[in-house]
Write a structure and sequence with these properties.
Arc Repressor Mutant, subunit A, 3-stranded antiparallel sheet, 60% helix, DNA recombination, Nse4_C, DNA repair
Length: 281
């Protein structure tokens, strides 16, 4: 065996030894300082091995380049692991170093009894830091705050009220139109209540649909009937009934639903998309 081949074999052995050293530190959970020292030493030795071999030698022995890359990769992973464990708020505190310090110098630490701050019996509460103001100043400031808060709250309430007045009847009318249209498409047969109001994509829209349908039931524009077999509700459009004196009938429909019931109904009725899609204003 030639001298070049012996040198190559020795260089590969050094690379393997360096790689095993780095990987062993990862498994041993060593301290950050020890990991950094070993990483610095390994990178320095790998650099020297690269400088010793020329271009011709590296081209003849590509295995050394592979081992060099594996050593550098393992070293970079070890350095990254050390950096991730460093906490800037700990001021270079290392729990492993502290444990080693306690082990080497047991007389330096004294845990014979815990040190406690003596209780202060005459202090029962924190003193106030507010500066007392004259009563006239406090009353004027409180009145000013009330006036400002009242002025800030007044406009949003009016806007919400106007929007509710304008949007409410319009949406109820759209729901009524949809039910009448769907009733005709269904051969003038009653519609499944849950198929109409359930929205599988939105629980809030389902609640809104129930809310608007209840208005139509209250006004007598929609009739609710229970299926004789399963007792499920079905709805159909109706003309608003009147008594002999011209007064409207007062109908009520009380329907409650929660998130759990909403999910169960969607699964039972196998609803994949909403039947009633009303564009909100």
């Amino acid at each position: 065996m030639s001298t070049a081949e012996l040198n190559s074999s020795q260089r590969k052995s050094k690379y393997i030894s360096m790689y095993e050293t780095v990987t062993a530190l990862e498994d041993q959970n060593a301290s950050n300082q020890e990991c950094l020292d070993v990483t610095h030493k390994v990178v320095k030795e790998a650099k020297q091995l690269v400088q010793e071999g020329g271009v011709d030698h590296r081209s003849k022995h590509p295995g050394e380049g592979l081992l060099d890359a594996r050593v550098l990769h393992a070293s970079s992973n070890l350095a990254k692991m050390c950096l991730e464990t460093v906490d800037v708020n700990m001021h270079l505190y290392d729990k492993n170093q502290l444990a080693q310090h306690i082990k080497n110098k047991p007389d330096f630490w004294d845990f014979t009894y815990p040190l406690e701050v003596p209780a202060v019996s005459y202090l029962y509460g924190a003193g106030t830091l507010q500066v007392s103001l004259p009563s006239s100043t406090r009353s004027s400031q409180s009145r000013s705050r009330v006036v400002v808060q009242h002025a800030q709250m007044r406009v949003p309430k009016n806007v919400d009220k106007v929007q509710q007045i304008e949007n409410g009847p319009e949406l109820v009318s759209r729901v009524d139109h949809f039910i009448k249209k769907q009733y005709k498409l269904n051969g003038r047969r009653p519609l499944s209540y849950y198929s109409v109001v359930l929205d599988p994509d939105s629980f809030s829209k389902t609640v809104e649909n129930i809310y608007y349908v209840s208005f139509l039931v209250h006004d007598g524009l929609v009739a609710v009937e229970l299926d004789e077999t399963y007792g499920l509700p079905f709805i159909s459009p109706r003309e608003a009934p009147r008594d002999n004196d011209g007064a409207l009938h007062d109908n009520q429909m009380i329907m409650s639903i929660d998130m759990k019931m909403w999910k169960e109904l969607i699964e039972v009725f196998q609803i994949s998309k909403p039947l009633m899609v009303i564009k909100r204003l």
